[in-house]
Design a protein that fits this description.
Elements lengths: L1 E5 L4 H11 L4 E6 L13 E5 L11 E6 L11 H24 L6 E7 L13 E2 L9 H12 L10 E7 L1 E3 L1 H12 L4 E2 L8 E3 H13 L4 E5 L7 H11 L9 E2 L1 H8 L3 H5 L3 E2 L2 H5 L9 H5 L5
Parallel strand pairs: 1-2, 1-4, 2-3, 4-5, 5-7, 6-13, 7-11, 8-10, 9-12
Length: 300
């Protein structure tokens, strides 16, 4: 089977592409810079430009995976916020146009969204959130909602299944290493200890995408670890994982976090108890269901 991946050159994308090709899929990675990523190319991984028009080459593509979009972990100037917002909608339209000009009739679209869709400006989270829960009112919640809504254009293809993956914070070795330094130096952490931290291991993103393909799933899925973890438990787990002699975690007060980070504070103060109900009910078995196991098996 042939699959087109938009955003296949990033951290998550590379792992998804390699895993799919290991299962005998032929994967076409859409990129603006083929020369930069030419090392990714193999017999079953084809790098193609967004301007490609080759219906013969792309004949029988049935699955689309959309992962790309401006990164959110940068300083939020008005210009950056506009790029973050517009990039999600723009790339959806680009992917649709790419299908039309290459005569691709997809049967499934897997779209990367995020749990930020449940974020609240008040940063007060005395509730649980599952896939049917109300959307939030912050900048990121609006970005996530616009991203998901933009995929409706693909309903122009009859009988297409659209999956919205609401992904939590993806654990990475270099991010945990940076946090470990802060904790070792006893620097205050922006966050709220009683709020929940929605983590997920990258292998479970890859695993669930493969599961969704194998089982012909559709709809919204919260992709977070099933072990519900507060901010305090999360950061203490980092200390335990790095075998630090420091046992305490200090959090900045909410008002200070908001003063220092402005609207970006929603990323640090986020905290509904997010439950992956539909993900579990789909029959998916997590590879890393506990935080300790996930932290012990990180890459990059």
């Amino acid at each position: 089977m042939k699959i087109v991946v938009a955003g296949g050159t990033g951290f998550i994308g590379k792992k998804i592409v390699r895993s799919l090709t290991g299962k005998d899929f032929t994967v076409f990675v859409l990129t603006r810079n083929i020369k930069k990523h030419k090392r990714l190319s193999t017999e079953n991984i084809k790098l193609i430009d967004w301007n490609t028009v080759n219906p013969t080459l792309l004949k029988d593509v049935k699955i689309l995976i959309k992962l790309n979009g401006e990164k959110v972990d940068q300083f939020w100037t008005n210009s950056v916020k506009n790029k973050i917002f517009e990039s999600r909608i723009e790339t959806t339209k680009m992917l649709f146009d790419f299908c039309v000009k290459n005569e691709i009739i997809p049967q499934k679209l897997i779209n990367a969204s995020a749990v930020g869709i449940y974020a609240l400006n008040s940063a007060k989270y005395n509730f649980s959130s599952d896939e049917k829960s109300q959307k939030g009112d912050t900048f990121l919640s609006k970005v996530c909602d616009a991203n998901e809504q933009s995929t409706k254009i693909f309903n122009n293809f009859k009988n297409i299944n659209i999956i919205q993956l609401r992904i939590g914070v993806v654990l990475r070795k270099k991010i945990i290493s940076l946090l470990s330094i802060n904790l070792f130096l006893s620097l205050p952490i922006p966050g709220k200890k009683s709020n929940y931290f929605p983590w997920v291991h990258v292998d479970d993103i890859v695993g669930f995408i493969e599961h969704s393909i194998d089982n012909n799933l559709s709809g919204i899925f919260n992709l977070v670890g099933p072990e519900l973890t507060t901010h305090q438990i999360f950061f203490k787990a980092i200390l335990n994982n790095t075998k630090s002699f420091i046992s305490w975690v200090i959090f900045l007060p909410d008002c200070i976090t908001k003063l220092f980070f402005g609207s970006m504070s929603e990323m640090f103060l986020f905290g509904p108890k997010i439950e992956p109900l539909r993900t579990l009910r789909s029959g998916y078995n997590y590879k890393f269901s506990s935080l300790s196991d996930a932290l012990s098996n990180l890459s990059e």
